Amino acid sequence: MRPALALLCLSVLSLQAHATERSLDRWFDRELVPYVTSQLVEHPRFKGESVMFVVFEDNVPASVSNALAISLRDRLLDAALNAPGVIVGRRQGGAGAGPAAQAVDCTRDEVHYYVGISLSRRIDGSHGVGVRAFDLEDNTWVSGFGAAWQGALSSVQQQAVRRSHADATFRGARDVPFTADESDLLATRLAHDLSCALLRETAGRYIVAAEQASEAEDNLGVTVQLVSNNLARHDALELSGNEQQVNATLSGRAHQIDGSLYQYWLTVTPTDADAELSTLSASAYVLLPGYRLAGAPPPRNDEMPAPAVLNATVDIPRGGDALLGPLRILKSQDPRSCARPGDTSLQTTTYSESQSQCSVLIADARADAIVFVLAHQANFGLVRLGGPDCRERTAPHVVTRGAAMRYPVPFTAIGSSEMRETGEWRIAPGVDTYYAFAVSDARAAREFANHIDALPLRCSRSLRRGLENNALHLWLDEFAVLAARHAPHVGWRALEIKDVL
């Protein structure tokens, strides 16, 4: 090769390597994460101070942003949680927030610094990412702390920018309310806030009999009881059935703000107005579709509130036919037809009530991959299938290139069925839909398995109520972010099934 040509080739390769090196993901993992974690651990200003990781929009934390910004924030938060010496606020660090917590830790409730990511679009079509820290006590930006990147986003990242995404850190705020099926999460949040308020009281001990709210008064059902149990376990107050000892009551009320949006207040009220004990309260916003105030007339049909989530779709990055071929279902009277390759046992799956019927989901594997199978039951939500072993944890299915994926599914009546592939993930599909999600990277597969663990497990022919409505929408949004992050290693196929009688 001539020297000039060799030099040109080296120059081009150098430029390509530099451009690749400056891709957002590489900059984020190789430069930003080490910089931020080292600053939070070593800089004297942050020692002993709690931080919260947010997305900045117009220089203030945003409760709703785009999926890419939230994903970047989550990656930075994960790195901080794994860095010894970094104190992360309770809403993100989980201190004392879990249902198994035996003591209340209120020390992380007060946040001293915001570490925030901002995402902007330039006139030339490129994007910029910046990271800054804000001192909440001084109400000033931290000088000398910051990093920035500018460049072109990948097609997957551009799609993520276009998707709106709620920040779970602000769950319970007006823009990110709890939903009616999240009464356990609401109770955990309110119990913590009330526990900290109780621990700050020094006048005396609260002995409480929880007020049993009627269905008309408390559409969230068991919220007050759940909070009572949490408070008692945290030793924040004493529950008593002795009316002579009780000196306070615990009650919950939902107050309508706008349409289906309510503010739920939980209050501890002394029974003696002249006592030294103070009235304490905690609140959070919640969506209550169909909720009606006590004593109010039933709404007319044209006034019925709309459901919190309509029959929308979520954009899950798709590798298409890169990893799996088209899906199909084999229905047979011979259980050996449904067995996996090499399986000599006639025991096919817990989905079959007898050994004379079986159904199996089949696809050709076009690469070595780990496959997860999900089922969206019409009107019954999304579940994960346990396979023949029905393990409590998510069971991946390993497939080899050139071989057929065979995965047992709940039995479908033998006869005529309408089956068609679909490229959509719907919040509320009108027909049963099976999803085969393939991952060619083991590390990414573990992340997906952990996320899929949150879905209810179905192990029999009987329908199992799955994830639905707003909770499902949030789950799919987070699933989409994971899929976007690992886009080169994922692919999925979906099959809609309608039995014809």
Q: Which secondary structure elements does this structure contain, and how are they paired or packed?
A:
Layout: H1 3-21, H2 24-42, E1 50-57, E2 60-61, E3 64-66, H3 67-81, E4 87-88, H4 90-93, E5 113-121, E6 127-135, E7 140-141, E8 147-151, H5 155-161, E9 164-166, E10 178-179, H6 183-199, E11 207-210, H7 223-233, E12 238-239, E13 248-258, E14 261-270, E15 280-287, E16 313-314, E17 328-332, E18 358-364, E19 369-377, E20 381-385, E21 397-399, E22 404-408, E23 417-421, E24 425-426, E25 432-439, H8 442-452, E26 457-458, H9 469-485, E27 490-499
Helix pairs in contact: 2-3, 6-7
Total number of strands: 27
Largest sheet: 7 strands, mixed
Approximate strand percentage? 25-35%
Output mean pLDDT.
Answer: 76
Shape: globular
C-alpha termini separation: 72 Å
Structural class from helices and strands? alpha+beta
Q: Which regions are unreliable across 5 or more consecutive residues at pLDDT < 50?
A: 1-21, 95-101, 212-218, 291-311, 342-349
Rg, nearest Å = 27 Å
Fraction of residues in H or I helices: 10-25%
Q: Helical segment tally?
A: 9
Tell me the number of structural domains: 3
